[in-house]
Amino acid sequence: MNSAAAPEATQPSSELEAGNQASNKGRILAWAAWDWGSAAFNAVMTTFVFTVYLTSKAFGGEDQASAVLGGALAVAGAAIALLAPVTGQRSDTGGRRKLWLGVNTAAVALLTALCFFVFPRPEFLLVGVSLIALANVFFEFAGVNYNAMLAQISTPRNIGKVSGFGWGMGYLGGIVALLIVLQLFVQPRFEWLGAATEDSLNIRLVAVFSALWFFIFALPVLFAVPELPKPRHGARLGFLASYGLLVRRIKAIYRTSPHTIFFLLASAIFRDGLAAVFTFGGIIAAGTFGFELSQVIFFAIFGNIVAAVGAIIGGFLDDRVGPKTVILGSLVGLLVAGTVILVLGNGDYVFFGMNWAGSTTFWVFGLFLSLFVGPAQASSRAYLARLAPQGESGELFGLYATTGRAVSFLAPTLFTLCIAVATPLVAEGEAQRWGILGIMVVILAGFLVLLPVKPPSETEIAVVPQS
Predict the structure, then answer these.
(1) Distances (CA, A) of 121 to 110, 125, 425
(2) What is the torsion angle, in degrees rounded to the nearest 10, for the CA atoms of residue 360, residue 171, residue 371 and residue 337?
(3) Which residues contact 43 (CB under 8 A, 6 or more apart)?
(4) How confident is the prediction along the chain (467 residues), in pLDDT tens digits per residue?
(5) Class of domain 24-232
(6) Nearest to 301 by CA among 171, 165, 167, 209
(7) Which homologous superfamily does the CATH classification assign to the domain defined by 252-467?
(8) Who contacts 6 (Cβ-Cβ below 8 Å, separation ≥6)?
(9) Where do the CATH 1.20.1250.20 domains begin and end in the chain?
């Protein structure tokens, strides 16, 4: 993999190269099951069901509730940015990566289950958003350890495929969980306790279901994957002293492997664009293309299926052509599809003798967008795992989370700005479409910043101080 680092015995090795050279299918399935289970929190709790419930009229009005939820999530994002690298570092140095994955996962499951007690009344709004925000913090902490574990269950020959398989499982798990929730709770096919709508019991039971779903599917990885070996070097540091060590390590990484830092910056930009594709996709479908809520959910299901297929295919390509090539190719695909949606909009066109309605444009090129999101995300994770110094994956993925949070304002800001600029210049109802331009600008910026970054095969593994 890292040919520049291999010839000399004194050169540090990556955690991936230092691990087992034969992967275990059982461990890979157990690891990917966590992604499958975690989708209940992402898709059900924070995207399609529970946050929609929290921002309903029952909690004081959509505008006020949305503002409170947004503020709570902003505070959570700041906490993640400040704490993620150090939590990853301390799980590495203590040899407790799996332990903290389990602790943080259990915390998310517990906080999710407690959402059952968020009754549909304004006085419960603060409780609800606080539980969701805090669960987001612990979810990101768990994700740091989970992503770092990728180097433990894969090899240099299959890491791209394994990462893509995990992302694919996450997308598919979200679809299955969402369909179960729709059939049993939101639009139940038969009468039972979970169908009762008094005090929104059916929606509150969704929280219990999501907690159990996540917790049950998180268990296999905690039994199947061994704990990270305890490092022999260094003494345990106090929490504040960990930040001093973090700064020294960032400086050392920049000095000995600058392209690792460059990749963190580039990936932070394009990952913000990738997140915006799903964040604003449903909004654009409804506002610009006139989709009903049922159509939006239907499109979301198909979009996740396509994204899962794309992630798995991208994983196979990653191991053959390298993660940088897969990421750049995916970003080009996103730019092409997004530009077509922007240019064609909701108009009617005739191509090859066939009528091409606006909804058809969004279905075809919206799914085309989804196809390329998965590979870019999966290869980004595999890219960084290849560069993590031995025993330092948790800290590096903590920085990965932090840099992502640091620029997470870019796509939403440009999306809003483009709409504001377009509003007085275009016909009524056409301005929202131009928000797509803001997302495309962020993706293009990530593409351009990534271009000069060396692929992992040409990048030195960083030399980091141990204390």
Answers:
(1) 22, 7, 41
(2) 60
(3) 174, 175, 177, 178, 304
(4) 344 443 333 444 556 655 555 568 899 999 999 999 998 998 889 877 888 888 888 898 766 787 788 788 878 888 888 887 777 777 766 668 899 999 999 999 999 999 999 999 999 999 999 999 999 999 989 998 898 888 888 888 888 999 999 989 998 998 899 889 888 888 887 777 777 888 999 999 999 999 999 999 999 999 998 887 766 555 565 666 667 777 777 787 888 888 888 999 999 999 988 888 876 777 777 777 877 766 777 788 888 899 899 999 999 999 999 999 999 999 999 999 999 888 887 766 665 566 666 678 888 888 999 899 989 999 999 998 888 777 677 778 888 887 887 777 788 788 888 888 888 887 776 777 888 898 899 999 999 999 999 998 887 776 665 55
(5) mainly alpha
(6) 171
(7) MFS general substrate transporter like domains (1.20.1250.20)
(8) none
(9) 24-232, 252-467
What is the distance between the alpha carbons of residues 21 and 155, in angstroms, rounded to a whole number? 6
**The two three-digit tokens of residue 275, written as one number:** 């997140």
